[in-house]
Amino acid sequence: MTDATGRPDTGERHLSSREMRAAGVSKSYGATVALEHADIALKAGEVHALLGENGAGKSTLVRIFTGAVIPDRGEMRLHGEIYAPRSIIEARKREVATAFQELSLVPNLSVAQNFLLPALAGRGSPLISHRHVLARGAEILERHGLTRIDPAARIGDLPLAERQRIEIARAIENAGRVLILDEPTASLAETDWLFEQIGKARARGVAILYISHRLAEVREICSSATVLRNGRSIGTVGLASASDGDIFEMMVGHRVEHARRPARAVDAARTPRLAVENLAGHGLRGVSLHLGAGEILGVAALEGQGQRGLFRLLAGLETPAGGVIRVDGKLAAYRNPRAALRCGSGISYLPEERKTEGILAGLSAATNVVLPLLPRVGRAGFIGRRDEEKAAQPSADQVALNPRYLGFAIGDLSGGNQQKALMARTLATGARTLLLFDPTRGVDVGTKESIYAAIRAFAERGGSVLFYSSELPEIVQLADRCLVLYGGQVFRELQGDDIAEQTLVAAMIGHDPCAPAARAPAPFATPAHAVAENAR
């Protein structure tokens, strides 16, 4: 008898006594303690959350589970046997697989080839025909409800959300005992597809470790959670009995208050800092908007409704097919981010993907922060480390980036500290208009609060902010006004207290209670499941 993936079904995976357990696991890098005495137990057929701030040790623990890092101390057991993998391949042989937040797919290979790695690359592996590889890839895509994706498509040509789904599907294929999902919805605007796949894995008796900063989805899919802080296990709680405040306090050591920014009125008679009329191309069908000084304007949308194109056009990364952009009242025709920064009072862009579009991993955090300032930082053509760190410090302070991290290679920092450094760079440009695309994607609650504070302070100083967020509570907290995109157009505009999650969700799926249904524009080719998933 076989299970849904064709593997022998021994019945063992359905026993709750089967588990993965780690006790006293520790890891240091020189004087830096990344993980100190972490304890966790994952039971077969259950979804268990791992929570904590960026830098709490979650990523190190995941790397240890996957064999990418060897712990200094501690013990791990899988189904009662010692578990000590020394590579990701060795972990897979024990049926432990991970879908990483920073995708592990090979971008210049096809979807099907990525599914069959590393077997395809093995020296001793038999030659497999291209047709057979595509057929195997198509089978896997069908098994995971992804038939819309071409198995021959090059991974690097797919949208980020589709790459994330491929990463997750590949991990599920290899997870016979333990599945680790590291920020699986960081690039997904919906959850139904993911939760359906998790349900299938649970039914096979797979133990699932779910890592996310989105507590609402953690509560929906997980029954219990272990919290890490400063590399140590603070405790394990049942999610039904622990409040959000309890969990945040365990994560950061104190209560976290989520206060909404008071709505700010903008002088309508004053020339907008940024004005757009009938902008078209790259997913837009004629978008108009205005952004005033001191205003925070949010953008909400389902996946693929034109938001990415809007930000890339305004940042100078793409050329519009039509429409007009005005900066400080003057026509603007910039064609690259540098020109956008020099246009009027300046436009600075925080990109969606920090790993591929944002950071230079081998350089220090200070260097990454001051990249826009390099001509002004050096002395007689030379730029020293101290000069860079001194120049980076003011904007680093605005996002609460610890000064000691400025000298570290940014690739060695946690995702939250990397995001703080990128936000600091955006502020360091001196631009008066910020374009922020999902500025807190995949970061912890503490980092979110630091970035929120920086955005609010920037607006209080008269700066203008246009931001898109895949997290509706973020829009509710920050935005003075919000534009909802649907079908590449502005479907609805909300302001002040009218910005509420329920209202946003209704508009995002094309429902306007004040207008006849015929007025709703046709959406782009967003899969039907994505509409349902975003309506949660």
From TrEMBL:
The cross-references to PROSITE patterns, in alphabetical order and at most eight, read: ABC_TRANSPORTER_1 (PS00211), ABC_TRANSPORTER_2 (PS50893)
Keyword Cell membrane belongs to the record: yes
Q: Where is the composition biased (Basic and acidic residues)?
A: 9-21
One of the record's GO molecular function terms:
ATP binding
Give positions of region: Disordered.
1-21
The record's CDD domains line, in alphabetical order, gives: ABC_Carb_Monos_I, ABC_Carb_Monos_II
Keywords attached to this Swiss-Prot or TrEMBL record, sorted alphabetically, are:
ATP-binding, Cell membrane, Membrane, Nucleotide-binding, Repeat, Sugar transport, Translocase, Transport
Q: Which Pfam families match?
A: ABC_tran
Protein's UniProt keywords contain Transmembrane = no
Could you name the domain of life of the organism this protein comes from? Bacteria
State the similarity comment: Belongs to the ABC transporter superfamily.
Protein name as it appears in the record = Ribose transport system ATP-binding protein
What organism is listed for this UniProt entry? Ancylobacter polymorphus
